[in-house]
Design goal:
By secondary structure, the protein is of the alpha+beta class. It has one domain: Aspartate Aminotransferase, domain 1 (Alpha-Beta Complex). The chain is about 35% helix and about 25% strand. The radius of gyration is 13 Å and the shape is globular. The termini are far apart.
Length: about 120
């Protein structure tokens, strides 16, 4: 799957979650639940040369992902200190793994009333 296809899958999945909206934030697509951002797409951020997304996460989950695969996962600038996880889309992520990360991020910021599905 190409990065563009993964980005489209990311957009489709995020849009299917309750009360999610997409808007541009800092020049790139970002996804919000109610008013809180849970995923930011970053294309060639500071000349990195690849497409990635940054997602809300717990520090424990982020540490586990970094230990598991440091090529795919990274600590993103600006929001990494809050436990956010960076995920490169030019690696061999399966659609299921991508969806799991997005759902995890959604659960981190969505209000409790939305977590009943």
């Amino acid at each position: 799957m190409t990065p563009a296809q993964q980005l489209e899958g990311l957009r489709t999945y995020c849009s299917s979650l309750p009360e999610v909206s997409e808007r541009v934030s800092h020049g790139d697509p970002a996804f919000f639940v109610v008013k809180k951002c849970f995923v930011m797409v970053k294309n060639n951020h500071h000349g990195a040369g690849w497409l990635a997304f940054w997602c809300a996460s717990t520090s424990e989950f982020r540490a586990a992902m970094l230990e598991r695969d440091s090529k795919t996962y990274f600590v993103p600038p600006y929001v990494g200190y809050r436990g956010w996880l960076g995920v490169r889309l030019d690696t061999a992520l399966t659609p299921e793994t991508l969806e799991n990360h997005l759902l995890e991020a959604y659960y981190c910021v969505a209000p409790p009333r939305l977590l009943t599905f």
